[in-house]
Amino acid sequence: MEAAHTLPVWAGKDKIVQRIRDNDTVILVGETGSGKTTQVPQFLLREGILPSEGQHMIGITQPRRVAATSLARRVASELGCADPATLKEKQEHDGLPEWVGYSVRFDDRTTRHTRIKFLTDGMLIREILGPLPRRRGKPERNFKETNEYSLKRYSVLIIDEAHERSLRTDMVLGLAKRIQRDRRNRIEAGEANVYPLKIVVMSATIDAERFAQFFSHGQPVPILYVAGRQHGVRLYHTEASCQDWTDAAVRTMMQIHVSKPLGDILVFATGQEEIEAMAQSLKLYAAQLDAWAEEQGRDSVPTLLIRPLYAALGPSASAAVFAPTPKHTRKVVLATNIAETSITIPGVRYVVDSGLVKEKVFSPQTHVETLQVLPVSQSSSLQRAGRAGREGPGECYRLYTREAFQELQLQPTSEIHRTELSGAALQLYAMGLDPFTFDWIEPPATSLLHEAVLQLAELGAVDSRKDTVQLTPLGQRLAALPVTPSYARLLLAAAERGPEVASQARDLVSILSADRGLFVDVADPEKREAAESARDQFVDTSGDHATLLNALRAYLLAQQHAFQSHSTPAAARQELKMWCQTHAIHERTVKNVLAIRKQLIRICLQHGIECADDATKSAAAPDDGESESDDDALIVTRYGASSTRDHEQSYADLLQCLGMGRLSHVALRQPDGSFRRIAGGQSFKLHPTCVLHPSRHGARGISSDSVQAIVFEELVMTSQTFARTVSKLEPVWLQALLAAS
Ligand code: CDP
Ligand code: MG
After folding, report:
1. Which CATH class is domain 4-226?
2. Counting CB atoms within 10 angstroms of each CB, which of 130, 343, 434, 693 has the fewest?
3. Residue 29: exposed, middle, or buried by beta-carbon count in 10 A (0-12, 13-18, 19+)?
4. Ligand 1, residues 38, 40, 201, 266: which to mutate, most atoms within 8 A of Cβ?
5. Any coiled-coil ranges, and where (predicted)?
């Protein structure tokens, strides 16, 4: 392990600490990997910047959950503290201090001893939002009231990765500025026990002026630069643009592997599916390496270690990326843009850059947000290349031409200009703030905010008559639930139809909130056939929602069976693993879904959403995330037992709730068989993986005519636009929906 005190940021330690002591806000700019994120919080803790009385904390926000968890674990290990991933309230850790924790959605690893807290910006916003107001039916709340408890324990707030300008980071910037000023005012008014909020904005590229100006309340805000250590990186471009970049990436990696000196390879890919596909091909190649070397009369080729890195990986899988590479071995890290600036992987000498990134894009023309694969900006592309030159001279292989690079946009477009804003707007309204006048570092187009208000009005979250927007009591409840407003609406709608429907909705929201789909997208046609027939038993002819629920319930039964019929938990786990493989279900995703479900069980209880299986709540209390404890088995055992009772589940009520307040997710069949949203916009088809896809109607006894109206979860845009996760709506339900809106 590289000794921490040799990191470049150490050279500026005293100055950094002093500036933070002397100023309310400091901007810290430095090359990626210089030690800003891992070292600065430790400097501040060691130098005693926290007030001694009370339980004060240093908070560090991250745009991504993998960054928050892995950086927290790293800092904990450097400080000799308990590993936050194992932290549970009231548990002893061999006497290790519990100073470092993290909090990401559905996974809070902090205790009252936490002094350094890594959290996603989304979680920080939730903390500012606070719990539900005590008085029911009184949605209005002014910000001061919210602020009473907001961020009270934080003395220092480090807003990290600010250059990325994620929507949530932008919100945090505006909110933190407000809270900082509010605290100053209270201190000046002589209020006791109020401490200033120190803000440190950390950024990898040089847009520091903008942040400094934003935070200057008449006083200049100091900008500190950490000198980087960057070696030369040799750039290679392709001669012609490549048709299939994953294929080109795999070939480039193999080329590097057999011809270049040892040193790890970092590949910038778009998403987990592409990463998994590349990992598969790499494994195939790697298996043939020895035979190949022999045939060529060469010495044996180094071992190839394949390490994926993307959001849906649990803490332990992502930790494997940082493990030092063994001798005579080359590590290949297949990453999303998370490795661009948030996470620095030691040992990298070669970068292979797809030049692409997967992003959410909101189209004002279609009023729909889609996930799209788009070219990166020049600045991202330079950052990516830079990852090869941190420890010595490196090489970067761009899978695009020199001309293509020249044509890239200089800087990425901030998320706020390209995303759907209803969730953000709802949170601001719930804090008593107005998104139209909010102190944004870069305000969004008013049309995007109007669009957001329309969406919120559709959900019933706001009342927007006569030019004023009023949060409704329903809106306040939606904002308080830590899922997207539309899933929150589903939960509340289901709750009105009784505990059985509520528990179905809760489980469905758990599935839909996971980082990825439950079913493996099998590329190989033969294997796909096999996977599909194995999954046939889950199919509900209403569509994907009920089918997904059936699959989750079947897993729970399989789990119950496995733990009852095997004497050792290890054997039971092996059986479950096989079960997932047979049914082409992502086991890691199921575990993620169960962890979310456990949190949602708790959240539903807190919010008065009564579920049919609440009797099992005691088993759901502690959360142990991805750990494979038998505690998980316990709840599902009881759960499974209860679900055998009503074997034939009816999902009619749930399906009706799916469309409530979500007319923008409802579409009608067109004469040509495509679909079009009720609200208009472009037409689209069902994704081939949909249960309702016409190619499967025959096998499933679905008549195309019966699928006149659908509700869908998302649209994806590839060469065409497809709807994914789709269910059928009966015409009478549709009429009821239209009448209600
Ligand atoms: O924030 P900044 O990009 O300036 O650097 P950092 O994230 O604090 O990383 C400093 C060093 O810690 C780098 O050399 C990383 O490779 C290393 N690190 C690590 O080895 N394992 C982690 N889990 C996190 C960081
Ligand atoms: Mg950092």
Report:
1. alpha beta
2. 434
3. buried
4. 38
5. none
Q: What is the pLDDT of residue 146?
A: 55
Cβ–Cβ < 8 Å for 732, 687: no
Distance of alpha carbon 260 from alpha carbon 350, whole angstroms: 10
CB 384 within 8 A of CB 353: yes
pTM, two decimal places: 0.85
Q: What is the pLDDT of residue 615?
A: 66
CA distance 508 to 552: 9
Is CATH 3.30.390 what the domain over 420-480 is classified as, yes or no?
A: no
Counting from 1 in the atom list of ligand 1, the atom nearest the Cα of 31 is 4
pLDDT of residue 625: 36
Ligand 2 center from residue 387 Cα (angstroms): 13
Question: What CATH number does domain 233-416 carry, 3.40.50.300, 3.30.2160.10, 3.60.20.10, 3.40.250.10?
Answer: 3.40.50.300
**From the CA of 235, how far away is ligand 2's center (Å)?**
24
What is the rounded CA–CA span in Å between residue 326 and residue 22? 46
pLDDT value of residue 118: 97
Q: What percentage of the chain exceeds 70 in pLDDT?
A: 91
Q: Distances in Å between the alpha carbon of 570 and those of 441, 575, 580, 674?
A: 52, 9, 15, 48
For residue 237 the two structure tokens come to 């471009």
At residue 365, the pLDDT reads 65
Mean pLDDT of 402-429: 94
Q: Closest ligand 1 atom to the C-alpha of 343?
A: 7
* Centroid of ligand 2 to alpha carbon of 42 (angstroms): 13
33 CA → ligand 2 middle, Å: 7
DSSP assignments along 220-238, one per residue: PPPEEEE------EEEE--
Q: Considering all CA atoms of the chain, what is the largest pairwise distance in Å, rounded to the nearest integer?
A: 82
- Residue with CA nearest ligand 1 atom 6: 35
Segment 596-648, tens digit of pLDDT:
898 899 889 888 899 988 765 443 333 333 333 333 333 333 333 344 334 34
| 502: amino acid identity, one letter | A
Q: Whose CA is nearest to atom 19 of ligand 1?
A: 322
Output the ligand 1 site: residues, CB below 6 A.
2, 7, 30, 32-39, 70-71, 74, 322, 344, 346
Domain ranges in the chain are 4-226, 233-416, 420-480, 486-639, 659-740
Stretch 137-143: mean pLDDT: 56
Q: What mean pLDDT value characterizes the chain?
A: 87
Q: Do domains 4-226 and 233-416 have the same CATH topology?
A: yes
pLDDT in tens, 537-574: 899 999 999 999 999 999 999 999 998 888 888 999 99
Task: Please state, in angstroms and rounded to a whole number, the distance separating the CA atoms of residues 107 and 115.
Answer: 18
Question: How far, in Å, is the centroid of ligand 1 from the Cα of 155?
Answer: 24
Q: Which ligand is nearest to the CA of 31?
A: 1
More confident residue, 135 or 385: 385
pLDDT class of 132 with cuts at 50, 70, 90: low
